[in-house]
């Protein structure tokens, strides 16, 4: 069977990397080696190996690979718990890279992404991996729903349908990364949005979807959220907290199409008629000093 053949190849590959790791870390010849199991936690498969030298028995666990002398732990569970803590630290550091402001601005999409990532921990069948890709699509749609504004659409054009991800992501990219100096940023936002959307759409219907494909879609979606969140927040960042005319806190960010066709972000007061154009903050580090 194809699946068994694939599993055997994967195990053989893992065995070799465990042997190489053991040779480096323990620097003792291997007397015995066998796989005793594998655990999948949060979408990551950790292989569990028992490796003995002439002198002592060890466990080697993968993702990330580490060696544990059996004498140093109560039992396998104890050692595995220790292993997971080390792994969780790596994951946590990855996660906390995103500033709260960017997370809050796209709270809905991030919630969807987290649910999709959690689902990977329990997925076994192709349909379950397809469902993760489908959830990533919902997450991308939530991104355009939260970031889109009709004023981002150039004069004379109809706003796209609410769920037209490809067109909305183009308009959003043009509005939040504007001007000649932001051309590369704009192109990057558009290209990653487009290819991630198409990847997720394909994986949603791919009959042989597996954990590698679901992981790829999750990572690509993660990258789109991070990129759009960063540029969106930077574009909106320098808005004042209170209206300078009436002191109201009811300030909102909006976008307006200028006579030349350029889309500019502005902040306006809901309490009076005050409004002000926002600088192209993504591109002017000089504005950095005014941050609270
Ligand atoms: Zn006001």
Major sheet summary line: 4 strands, antiparallel
Strand content: 15-25%
Give the structural class: alpha+beta
Q: How many helices?
A: 8
Explain what you see.
The model is unreliable at 281-292 (pLDDT under 50). Helix 4 packs antiparallel against helix 5 (126-147) and helix 5 packs antiparallel against helix 7. The chain has three domains: 3-91, no CATH class; 97-237; 251-291. It is built from eight helices and seven strands. The strands form two sheets. The protein has a four-stranded antiparallel β-sheet, with helices on both faces. The chain has helices at 2-25, 76-95, 100-105, 107-119, 126-147, 165-176, 183-205, 211-236, and strands at 30-41, 44-53, 57-61, 66-69, 251-257, 263-269, 275-277. It is of the alpha+beta class and 292 residues long. The longest helix has 26 residues, at 211-236. Zinc ion (ZN) binds at residues 243, 245-246, 248, 269, 271-272, 274.
Features:
alpha+beta, 292 residues, 3 domains, four-stranded antiparallel sheet, binds zinc ion
Quick gist of this model?
By secondary structure, the chain is of the alpha+beta class.
Q: Which helices and strands appear, and what pairs or packs with what?
A:
Elements (H helix, E strand, L loop, with lengths): L1 H24 L4 E12 L2 E10 L3 E5 L4 E4 L6 H20 L4 H6 L1 H13 L6 H22 L17 H12 L6 H23 L5 H26 L14 E7 L5 E7 L5 E3 L15
Antiparallel strand pairs: 1-2, 2-3, 3-4, 5-6, 6-7
